[in-house]
Amino acid sequence: RQLRDYETTKVIPCFTSRFFSLGAPGNVAVKMIPGFVDLQINGWGGVDFSSPGLTEADCERAFDEIVASGTVAFLPTVITASLDTYRHVLPLLAAAASRRPGVVLGLHLEGPFLEDAPGARGCHRGDLIREPDTALLKELLALADGKTRLLTVAAGQPGVEELIAEAVKAGVTVALGHHLASYEQLEAAADAGASVLTHLGNGVPNEYHRHNNPVIAGLGATRLAATIITDGFHLPKAAIAATVFAKSGKNRAGLAVVSDAVWLAGLSPGTYQWMGKDILLEYDEGANGHVVRDPANKCLAGSAASMLQCANHLWSLEILPDIDTLEHIVFHSPLGLIGLSELDVVCSHPRVRGGDGAAFALVE
Hints:
The protein has 364 residues and is of the alpha/beta class. It has helices spanning 56-68, 83-99, 134-143, 160-169, 183-192, 214-220, 237-247, 307-316, 323-337, 350-353; strands at residues 31-33, 36-41, 43-44, 47-48, 71-79, 107-110, 148-153, 173-176, 196-197, 225-229, 255-258, 270-274, 277-284, 289-294, 299-303, 360-362.
């Protein structure tokens, strides 16, 4: 059933008057929301969507757990990988998406056309990053059987404008990220058809020029919407506030929260092997959440947070003008950035399927 079926159903009460929550005792007048939409989720509960060992059973289990966490629609995200890995995971994920229409909205390819520079590449493997190549792009889109909804590329690379135009022609939304691009290079990419910035404020070096840097350029690129990771670790409050002001609201390009969750989400803290190196999953008591670190590259390696946790953190910062803005950023805007609407979502959270109405409540 589509979202419109639930417009008049009762709202699930919340734990408190300021946070999202699964159903809990209490009666509060609230605004209904069926769940969250995540445009960038790399895995969950030990399942890595970019793993050469990915199986159909892995996908189904991870999808069930993602939906149970409150994310009712999402784009499984495949990061920079070898061609053999792409040939394995893309058809598998495309088939899985076909089995869950309205829930798995398509795929997000983050890479391989990124910038191979320290800081910009993040935790992506530099030896697998490719220069813009339209022939390779066409092969990847074919492997994904037309299910690719979002493609992240680095602006400023030779030939990237042609690649962007080719992707847009194929019906793919193009985002820009993992680059050291200037304002002028972002504008050139927008001219070619790019429309989004991937996790603005991340995928950049820890230190750069105070004015001429990809974050300031991104904030000033008025035609480009942005996604941000609000897990409590990726961005400080001031950066989130500046991005909200620059991208969200009337006459702004748009803003959406993404989790950027990786396969370590839902696992116990410890040291894990990933991409041939040690990755740390740690619990931060002060932030009351888990953080994923790549010690070798001195950067974060995705997040371990759900969209529910990201939404709660964003709302707790008290920088949004109203609850409608929060609803827009975590549900409607992500859909709009990839050319969809609420009518393209099938509410599959167990509480909704069980007839309880909305899975979550927004409370002021």
